[in-house]
Amino acid sequence: MAENMRQMNIEGPDEAVEHSSRLLHQTVIEPSKRLFYLNLRGIWECRELLFFLAWRDLKARYAQTTIGFAWAIVQPLAMMLVFTVVFSNFAKLPSDGVPYPLFVYAALLPWGYFSKSLDRSSFSIVVESNLISKVYFPRIIVPISATFVGLVDFAIAFLLLLMMMAFYGVMPSWEALFIPMFLLLIVMISLAVSLWLAALFVRFRDIGAAMPLVTQMWMFATPVVYPASLVPEQWRWLYYLNPLVGVIEGFRWALLKAPPPGLERIAVTVVFVIGLLLLGMSYFNRMERKFVDVI
């Protein structure tokens, strides 16, 4: 013992204890007791895991498929054709002076991203139950990664929109510079709603049965197949509480030169979405301490 202490240049027992304590590193994980807790530091420290989960989900979705990433185009294209026949040719709905296929496809891009994000993120905690029960990491990374996956599909489908715009002779102008802002808004809306649903779904599995109905009703409460101008004036204040209204109108304005959504409406949407996202993150982080016990 004395020989070992001389080799470590330690003079006595007290110094040996201090040396051993420095070598031993122990991390204690405890749930936060704060009412409003975002854990942004934990998300940043585990950012590599976030991107790994997103990449794994992306590879798993298109593994062993014949046409691969082309499936990102098939669904919005098929819906555009059906909506064009039903709502343009039969119902004769207006399209703000824009060719109806372009009008509806430009709305299906943000709407498709939103609906797919809800479908993946809402069930993500339960799907990843094996991982969550074995190792600690900020659980909020799971729904965030599921939300990011849809951006790849959005980018692929956006290329088809550009080709359609060239076919109809609709060229983008300076308004197209606002597309990243509206894309960021739709990502924030998707993440905010997904965090609430993911935390609630762990305890209330009825949400899984209700999601298809809620998503379908939400689509018809959003100007996807019709312009917002068709909504009666006395009901527009209630209609504009839907944050997707301003985003979809913004996409059409930025790409197709449709009527602008209005600065006040966009400002209200931004404030509402930021508040919903911050509250959703706080609620999710408070509920995550019970996930392992429930799932």
Written description of the protein model:
By secondary structure, the chain is an all-alpha fold. The chain has one domain. It contains 15 helices and no strands. The protein is globular and about 55 Å long. The N terminus is likely disordered.
How would you concisely characterize the structure shown here?
By secondary structure, the chain is mainly α.
Features:
single chain; mainly alpha; 15 helices; 295 residues; 69% helix
Strand content: under 5%
Overall shape: it is: globular
Please report the total strand number as a whole number.
Answer: 0
- Overall mean pLDDT stands at 83
Determine the N-to-C terminus distance.
50 Å
Percentage of helical residues?
55-70%
Count of helical segments?
A: 15
Order of helices and strands: HHHHHHHHHHHHHHH
What is the C-alpha radius of gyration, as a whole number of Å?
25 Å
Number of structural units classed as domains: 1
Tell me the structural class: mainly alpha
Low-confidence stretches: 1-13
- Largest sheet, described in full? none
